Amino acid sequence: MQHTASSAPLSARSAEIFAGESTDMVSTKPPSGMRDYLPDAVVKRRYVLSKVESVFQRYGFLPLETPTMEHLSTLLGKYGDEGDQLLYRVLHRGERLGRTLAQAKIDLADLAELGLRYDLTVPLARVVAQYGHQLPRFFKRYQIQPVWRADRPAKGRFREFYQCDVDITGTTSLVAETEVMNAISEVLAELGFHRVNIALNHRVVLRSMIEVSGIAPALEGTALVAIDKLDKIGADGVRAELMERGITSEAAQQLLALTTVAQDKDNAATLQALRTMLPLPQAQQALSDLETLCQLTADAPAGPRLRLTPALARGLSYYTGPIFEVVSDDFSGSLGGGGRYDNLVGMFSNKQVPAVGFSLGLERILLLMEEQQMFPPLRMAAEVMVCALPDTPLAPVVGLVSRLRQAGVTVELYPEQIRLGRQLAGADDLQIPYALIVGPDEVVQQRYTLKHLASGAQQQLDEAALLEALRPI
């Protein structure tokens, strides 16, 4: 995989690696920024994902999956210059790669025409453009799949991670934003995140603030990047960065005054202040949209969480309307974000299809739930370990295990007929509460010893009584 934009001949070492001739010891560690998930982690991830999926389905969102790889032409130009640099490109294969490597000079475009999925929104836009005639007019979809970014790994930031997205395409109605924000609010509540807010803004409000401040349209993207750092580097840091990027001190000060107008104000007061400071017609309409969203969610899950936040910018360039992000005073960073993107689908077809969506940060959620001990007890062990003693015929034991499983009991069969103490220790290591001890006499008599490992209590039971004893576990 390649993710640099330079054009240069490959070194002998690189050619050796591509040819599979490296003699270095194979590392057992996963690639940097990627992880193995051991059973305990998988159980916790599945717990969170089950909650997420359950809420999304209650809201009528339909599942979607897309390929791991997309054409580079699909991905490039959708995430801004920085996003393009973070794309993982997939090398050509076979003879085509061989011909390319044989050239004296190698251009990146000659090496790759596919890339790993960067997010789930652009693939959705491609799917809507491709299959729009087969999809519902208002397509409500959820998608939970991994994405890849060639970013610098850090705590809570990985090169391979899962996104949990909900999107609605086909309507400009603000009901779509309401549905998305309410669904996300319910997910967070079910996971135990009660002290979180949804920061809300509008891309048109941002552009209007930049225009009113006297900043040239060509510097809009630069200004948005700086504004988005307000929580991290403070007003002085943003002011300095704006000036470093060619924006005058007066314009920077005016923009900061607009972006910080919400401090110590409720949503109604923030709206009123912005209406006064942004007299542009397009800004007034955008502010009316934000007011409508506050009204629509007043008696819904998202309502108490909404906080109008003029400094919220959201980095992706494809947003066109309301934007939102889940934040909290209890931790830095966000748990996800989204917004309206009415022009993205049109990049893949001649038809404009309005859309709005939200991407939930699964990895961040898992990290916080682990740190704050928010997981309930999650059972992953079997209910009973069947221990076959030495010299016990195994066929009847395997038959008994099968019947227990068919009755709904989760059973682990110890794979070796070794002394009982070691088998019981194995059950204890796996936190299995019961051991079912089967020896030659038990097979003949069809009565088995069920032992509760924590208390040491045990009883002799026939198969019917055994099923009755294990069924309530």
Written account of the structure:
The strands form three sheets. The chain has an eight-stranded mixed beta sheet with strand order 1-5-6-11-10-9-7-8. It has a five-stranded mixed beta sheet with strand order 13-12-14-15-16, sandwiched between helices. Helix 9 (203-212) packs antiparallel against helix 14 (281-296), helix 10 runs antiparallel to helix 11 and helix 13 (267-277) packs antiparallel against helix 14. Mean pLDDT is 89; it is low at 1-11. It has two domains: 33-67 and 121-371, BirA Bifunctional Protein, domain 2 (2-Layer Sandwich), CATH 3.30.930.10; 384-470, Anticodon-binding domain (Rossmann fold, 3-Layer(aba) Sandwich), CATH 3.40.50. The chain has 19 helices and 16 strands. A hairpin with a 5-residue loop joins strand 15 (447-452) and strand 16 (458-462). It is an alpha+beta fold and 473 residues long. It has helices spanning 12-18, 39-58, 72-75, 80-85, 94-101, 108-111, 121-131, 174-191, 203-212, 220-227, 230-244, 249-259, 267-277, 281-296, 362-371, 394-406, 420-429, 440-445, 463-470, and strands at 62-63, 69-71, 89-91, 112-116, 139-148, 160-169, 197-202, 306-308, 322-327, 336-340, 355-361, 384-388, 411-413, 434-438, 447-452, 458-462.
